[in-house]
Amino acid sequence: MLLGCIGDDFTGSSDLANTLAKGGMRVTQYSGVPGGPGEPDVEAGIVALKSRTIPPAEAVALSLKALDWLVGQGCRQFLFKYCSTFDSTPAGNIGPVIDALMQRLGADRTIVCPAFPATGRSIYQGHLFVGDRLLSESGMEHHPLTPMTDADLRRWLAPQTKQGVGHVAATTVFQGGPAILDAIDGEAKAGRPVVVVDAIRDEDLLAIGHAARDLRLLTGGSGIALGLPDNFRAENLLASEPSAWTGSDGPAAILSGSCSTMTRTQVARYAETAPALEIVPDKVMVGEQSPDGAVGWALEQTDGVPLIYSSADPESVKAAQQRFGRDQLAARLEEFFAETARRLCAAGVTRLVVAGGETSGAVVEGLGLSALSIGPEIAPGVPAVKASDRPLWLTLKSGNFGDADFFQTALGVLKGEHHDG
Ligand SMILES: Nc1ncnc2c1ncn2[C@@H]1O[C@H](COP(=O)(O)OP(=O)(O)O)[C@@H](O)[C@H]1O
Ligand SMILES: O=C(O)[C@@H](O)C(=O)COP(=O)(O)O
């Protein structure tokens, strides 16, 4: 294993896996820290954690455990993947995990770069944009668990880390690799070793990735991995043939616990023509809606693949959180989807589309899938994946990824249908 990655959620990890696989690396996504060694032909190993919104000390402990495992696999470079919308709170978990990983690796500098231009996330003057809006006006300010109310990454990160936060501006990034490296060096020497690097276009990310060839630790969104396969290829370290992947036709279901703007559009579009069951927090909390009932409903549907969703608008989410408590409600809904997935698979479902990072983590952990192999891209940042140990094809869709028809497209790709971007 050459590149060791730690993802703070499961959709984000598959997003990173997608970038590295497209770059020609043999990638495996592990669910949590594996108990034994990885397969010998894996070039990039991604340990997916559900650590984005757990208490910071737990996120640090889990991330260090993942790091130790990756070090044990012989990785020479490490990447901490978080969301391209920098999902975190003033307490963490991005900053505390960066501090701990740097310390364990003896790294005296790292970069922070959540840019992902293909999905509209760019960084300019230290500020994160989603399309033409500042992050804090993009809808992410309403996120149920990590409301992002400030787009200045330096200001948002500062209370999360014990180290100084630096910045390399776009004007420097445009000058290319040596200028970027010099600027990072200058920031580190000035006591600001955690360096936010601007990136607006894929070519910026490629330049940053190539410049980061000798950085022990990188942190960012999947975009920061764009240039990394080339670095390994230049040293003749990659196998010439990426591993093969095939889809499969079989009973399918869609589960959505994501309340992000794009997921809600996808849910609304899909429900226009296919069977859809809304899961309502009030009913779940009093046991009026159960996984058993939802699966019973799903199995009765003969006119299209069933969608089971709790996706709701920000006002409903807020009201439900006030009634039941944010974390308690999230935990109950995540367990609802995990149990629903277990029952669906037990009933023969072999294709599962899951929307939402936390929701996907709950589902994949609930199903006990230990590793995923990476298939074709369905939408930017969203690959088809396959469970390594059973006949189950999935996709784990990040909240704001995909277009309005994503669910339909995903079902086709999991079946093995060809899809152009
Ligand atoms: N109707 C709802 N009301 C309140 N919380 C919800 C509702 N539906 C889902 N949730 C919770 O909101 C969180 C959504 O996060 P996630 O699955 O990561 O989606 P995204 O990828 O869009 O961020 C989950 O913890 C989920 O259980
Ligand atoms: O970087 C990204 O935007 C995604 O890979 C990601 O992490 C999204 O997380 P969710 O929106 O919570 O699914």
Automatic annotation (TrEMBL):
Top-level taxonomic group: Bacteria
SUPFAM superfamilies found in the cross-reference section: YgbK-like
Residue span(s) of domain Four-carbon acid sugar kinase N-terminal: 3-227
A Pfam family recorded for this sequence: NBD_C
InterPro entries in the cross-refs: 4-carb_acid_sugar_kinase_N (IPR010737), 4-carb_acid_sugar_kinase_N_sf (IPR037051), NBD_C (IPR031475), NBD_C_sf (IPR042213), OtnK (IPR050007)
Enzyme Commission number: 2.7.1.217
Keywords assigned by UniProt, alphabetized: ATP-binding, Carbohydrate metabolism, Kinase, Nucleotide-binding, Transferase
UniProt key word ATP-binding: yes
GO molecular function: ATP binding; kinase activity
Coiled coil: none
Positions of the Four-carbon acid sugar kinase nucleotide binding domain: 253-407
Recorded catalytic activity of this chain's protein: 3-dehydro-D-erythronate + ATP = 3-dehydro-4-O-phospho-D-erythronate + ADP + H(+); 3-dehydro-L-erythronate + ATP = 3-dehydro-4-O-phospho-L-erythronate + ADP + H(+)
Family per record: Belongs to the four-carbon acid sugar kinase family.
Known role: Catalyzes the ATP-dependent phosphorylation of 3-oxo-tetronate to 3-oxo-tetronate 4-phosphate.
Name of the protein: 3-oxo-tetronate kinase
